[in-house]
Every structure is written in C-alpha cells, then in structure tokens.
Amino acid sequence: MSRPGGLGRGLSALLPEGDASSSGVLELQLGAIRPNPQQPRGSFDEGSLEELADSIAQVGVLQPILVRPAEDGHHFELVAGERRLRAAERAGLDTIPAILRRTGDENLLTEALVENIHRTDLNPLEEASAYQQLLTDFGFSHEELASRLGRSRTAISNALRLLQLAPAVQQMLADREITAGHARALLAVDDASSQENAAVRIRDDGLSVRATEELVRRLTSEAEGQTSRGRRRQQTPYEDLQQRLADALATKVTISGTRRRGRVVIDYAGTADLERLLQILERGTGEELLEEPPVH
Predict the structure, then answer these.
(1) Catalytic positions, written as ranges
(2) Where are the domains of the chain?
C-alpha cells in the first residue's frame, strides 16, 4: 500500500542544515527500521493508536520519524517516533518518511528543534505537530516546552488542539485553505462529517472567522435541539402521571412498562423519609394522590 500525501515538511524544516551525509528526508521501508534498545517505550494506548492509524491512512504521516544508521550498515535505528511507526504499520503503509541523523547526541537534536521552531515558516498544523513530537518523543512537559519557546502554556495548548480536528480538516489547514482561526472555531463541532462540511463551506464561500463562529453556533444549536428532541421521544408515556406523583410525594418517582403492566419506583432517603411516604399513602388512595389540584 502506498503512502498518501503527508504533511511531513515541518520537522525536516526544523532540523539544522547539513550536507547529504549528515541529514536528509528519506522514504524508508518499515522493515528496515529497528527499535532503539536504549529507549524502550512502555505500552501504548490502543484507542489512541487506532485513531492515529486511521488519520495516517487518510492523510499520511504528519511528521517524519527520526532515525540514525544502524551498525550493520543496512538498517536504521529509531531515535524518535515509535508511536507513528506502529500506527503506520497498522494503517498498512509500506514506507514512512524519516529524517536521517548521524549524530549520537539527542540532546543537541532536541535543542536544535526547539531553537528552529522560532525561525521556520511552518503552517499551524506543522507547528502543532512539532510541539506534539517534542512532548511525546522527547518527554517535555507543556510548561517546559512553553518556557523553552518563550510562549505561554495556553498558546501551546491551543496549538495542540488543532490536532483534534478531523483528518480532512487538518489537510485543509495544512494546505492553507482555511486559517488557524477558522480551525479553532470548528473544534466546537463534535461530528467529524459536519466539521468537514463546514470547512468546505468556509473555503468555497470565503467565510471570515467571525462568520465561521456564527456558522458553528448554528450547527451546535441544531445538534443540541436534535438531542433534546430525541430525549423527549424517549420519555415514558406516563411522564405526566410520573411528575404528578413526584409532586404529591415530594420525591423522585419512576414509572415504566406498558398500559397493561408496569412498575412504579418511589425513592426514599432513610427510614424517616420512608415512614413519611407510608403516612401519605395511608391517608388516601392512589386516585386521590393523582387528582388534579383545584383551581382557585
């Protein structure tokens, strides 16, 4: 299976310049890459790994992995990017973009990545992916990364949220068909299909960020209305009787079943409350409890 067009320029652009023997972006066979025995990684969240595999299957690998030549001269040793490598395998890719580094000092590499983020013309998604790589592959915390970059933790977090967009919307952002402002507004739309349709409308109609925010408000309002209507359709046919009993007994009452047979559940809070309910029920019949109050 060939790799779909990815968005891997960002990390390669961040690396310090060097001649062809020092670094470069390669398309490597997955079978030629060996794990780094000195950097064992623990377990990976299966759900997160599946989501990444789905994204890679649609839009490719957003950031290249980092490798260095293995001692046998025929393979490559993984420096960073094991999660992307595993997800690429699950997505059925044969190759993966990789950046070849001959340096053995990974601290110098991370420092170069951090330094060059300031000087490189990255699109918002590439920038977010570079942040994520530094957090995931090199163990930075949000606070440490923000401090090293001279940016606020909020700015880092807002950039990383762009990676939650639907894959097709991420691709549009990477291609600069929509802006980061548009993309952040679309994060409020939970449904991926609706999010993609809205992004296409933004691009085709040339919507401003303000118009996009209004569109998102309408979409979320409609979604909430549909959910509310769905809840109303699921209400028991005895909703009115249930409420009248609850009002009469001053406690929660649940009625379930059909018109021929069912169950009434009356909640109580402790022995004293149960005695109170029994006294109410003993004072009159159920019919009296359910009578409509007189109109004064």
Answers:
(1) 82
(2) 9-122+131-159, 167-233, 239-289
